[in-house]
Design brief:
The chain contains 12 helices and 12 strands. It is rod-shaped and about 160 Å long. By secondary structure, the chain is of the alpha+beta class. A 5-stranded antiparallel sheet has the order 2-1-5-4-3. Strands 7-9-10-12-11 form a 5-stranded mixed sheet, with helices on one face. A two-stranded antiparallel sheet has the order 6-8.
């Protein structure tokens, strides 16, 4: 049998069952929250695509400006700015701004000041920043319009006049709007630089909307998961807690006061556990009551021979008549034998349940078992002047699963009882038959029979119907009780009645399940 190590919990041993259920279900939601990583990858791809798109547009704008006459450039910048939605600036070789599409036309976008926006926008920006921090997004520089609009104020474009290479910057405006700036040299006028600035507010809005939708889905999933986890925990933990408290009260010795809930409406494992614990508690309560009753019966039965022995010993000290002393010594000897027999059978009766719980049941042929018992009794003269007639069944027709030694003890007790009630030269009949499902063993004597009102009482411990003058100290009243305990331990039954033929006498019928059934 395993030691239960496979059921041990290591790192979660201190967690309650409710915490474990919540952790498992929230973990699934946390996996769903991993979609934010995919969404950030989607945002990066959009920004990369917008950067390439702005670079291409900047090159086209530079080509158009190069081909235009100097007097047409202002009107051309206004038209290109309105069409592309960008801000287009041209700096001369000294880095001074000479043309700006926003000065010759309306601004194409607005970068809002976060201080003037409602709190909802601040929350949205805070959530954007928090999510990007969690997913470890690459930080972007801060975009700020220079107070003095010169090319040197744009750090990323400072080397463009010297290198003649196109330079691009992706930055974030104060309201966290992505800004793409492209500095490109003009070929017609050496040293002049065109600066195209694009506002990617639409990307920010799309990403924020997707994050909002995903956040709502995760929030709803988490809420539902928590509620379902609490419901599941309530249906599991609450009855388990009640069962645990009831079991604790049983352990503290209050078995008679505790009624374990059986949860009859539950057909799951919790209900099965509740009913099993309730049955166990009832069985324990019955066992405790039986033990207390047995202890009381033992005390009562031991007092009788002890009282007789004490009286005989006290009288023996005062009597001088040798004949009377001999009679008193015989009484003492009979009481000692009675005590010895009583203690032996009490010990046997108290060990029956424990021995049966440890026994390994095997196939037992009842016909062979009875045959060996009858032969043993005949060889040792245990039947006195009574003859035992055995109707042997066909070999293999009366086979049961059980402990052969315990079954033999039960049958011995039944035969002892039948022989003790049968008259001299009487006959005790024992037979065994099987019907494919059950094995029936019957023991009949030729005694006075059993009154109907006594047929249940005779199986009680220390119960005896014998006259007090007859067979004094010979029978303890435990033989039939031991036989019944053994039969019950083999899932069988035993009944007492009278013979159904014309002859008088008692009949005991033992029913046991057949092995093949």
């Amino acid at each position: 049998m395993g030691t239960g190590d496979d059921l041990d919990l290591r790192w979660s041993a201190r967690w309650s069952l409710t915490s474990r259920i919540l952790a498992v279900n929230i973990f699934a939601v946390a996996l769903l929250a991993g979609s934010f990583f995919w969404l950030d990858n989607y945002r990066v791809k959009l920004l990369d695509e917008r950067t390439r798109q702005t670079e291409t547009q900047a090159e086209l704008i530079a080509n158009v400006i190069d081909r235009a006459e100097p007097g047409e450039r202002a009107e051309l910048l206004a038209a290109l700015g309105r069409r592309s939605g960008h801000r287009i600036r041209i700096y001369n070789a000294d880095g001074a701004a000479i043309l700006d599409s926003w000065e010759v036309a309306e601004p194409t976008y607005v970068n809002r000041d976060p201080a003037t926006e409602p709190w909802r926008r601040s929350v949205a920006r805070w959530m954007d920043q928090g999510i990007e921090t969690v997913v470890n997004a690459d930080p972007l520089p801060r975009f700020e319009e220079p107070e003095l609009d010169r090319l040197s104020a744009w750090e990323f474009a400072a080397d463009v006049p010297e290198t003649g290479a196109v330079t691009t910057q992706l930055a974030l405006a104060p309201d966290r709007t992505p800004m793409v700036s492209v500095a490109i040299p003009l070929s017609r006028e050496p040293g002049q630089i065109a600066l195209v600035t694009a506002n990617a507010r639409d990307i920010r809005g799309d990403v924020r909307n997707e994050r909002l939708r995903l956040g709502i889905i995760i929030f709803v999933a988490a809420l539902v998961s928590i509620l379902l986890s609490l419901f599941l925990a309530r249906t599991i933990v609450r009855p388990l807690r009640r069962l645990s408290l009831a079991a604790r009260r049983v352990r503290l010795g209050r078995a008679r006061e505790v009624v374990l809930p059986r949860l009859p409406s539950r057909r799951d494992e919790i209900g099965l556990l509740a009913r099993t614990l309730s049955d166990m508690s009832q069985a324990l309560r019955q066992r405790i009551d039986a033990t207390e009753a047995f202890a009381a019966d033992v005390a009562h039965e031991l007092k009788n021979p002890l009282a007789s022995l004490s009286s005989a010993v006290d009288t023996l000290r005062k009597v001088e008549d040798p004949e009377l002393q001999a009679r008193l010594l015989d009484v003492v000897q009979d009481d000692v034998r009675r005590l010895d027999r009583l203690i032996t059978e009490i010990s046997t009766a108290s060990r029956i349940d424990a021995e049966l719980s440890r026994a390994n049941f095997e196939r037992v042929d009842i016909g062979d078992l009875i045959g060996s018992i009858v032969q043993f009794r005949d060889e040792r003269g245990l039947n006195g002047q009574v003859r035992i007639a055995f109707g042997r069944p066909r070999t293999g027709s009366a086979v049961v699963m059980g402990d052969a030694s315990q079954l033999a003890r039960a049958l011995e007790n039944l035969l002892d009882n039948a022989v003790s009630f049968s008259p001299a030269n009487g006959t005790v009949r024992i037979a065994a038959t099987g019907d494919g499902e059950r094995v029936y063993i019957s023991v009949e004597d030729e005694g006075p029979g059993i009154p109907e009102e006594q047929r249940e009482q005779i199986f009680r411990r220390f119960h005896s119907m014998r006259p007090s003058e007859e067979d004094f100290g010979t029978h303890s009243g435990l033989g039939l009780a031991i036989a019944k305990a053994i039969v019950d331990g083999h899932d069988g039954s035993i009944e007492a009645g009278n013979r159904d033929d014309s002859a008088s006498g008692a009949r005991f019928t033992v029913t046991l399940p057949m092995a093949d059934a």
